Amino acid sequence: MAVKELNAKEQHYADTREEAEKVVEDAKSDIYLTSWKISEKHNKYGTYFLIDLAFSYDTPREIMENAPSKSEEPVKDLHEGVEYNVESDGTVKLNDDQEDDE
Questions:
Q1: pLDDT (tens digit per residue) in 23-56
Q2: For a disulfide at 49, which of 14, 21, 45, 74, Cβ 3.0-4.6 Å?
Q3: Is residue 85 part of a domain?
C-alpha cells in the first residue's frame, strides 16, 4: 500500500499576475485543493508572485467512518476447505464423503 500524506502544501513562482492565476486555475481541477493564495512580492529585481496551494486528502476520520462496525456479522468465506480428522496416533485422514465438483 502506498503511503500518501494527508495534507500537502505546494508553493509556485510566477513573473506576472496572469501566470499566477493560470497556476491557480489549473490547480482547481484537483478535487483535493482546499485553499490557495497569491502573494505579490518585491525585491531588487522587480515584482514577482508566490502561489501557495494546500491540498487535503482522505483524513483518518473519513477512513474510520467508512470502516465496518464491530456489530456487523462477518462475511462467510465461500471456500470451506478440506475436512480432515487427526487420529490419536498423529495420522491425518481426509473425509471421503465429500462430493467432487469435477
A1: 999 999 988 889 999 999 999 999 999 999 998 8
A2: 14
A3: no
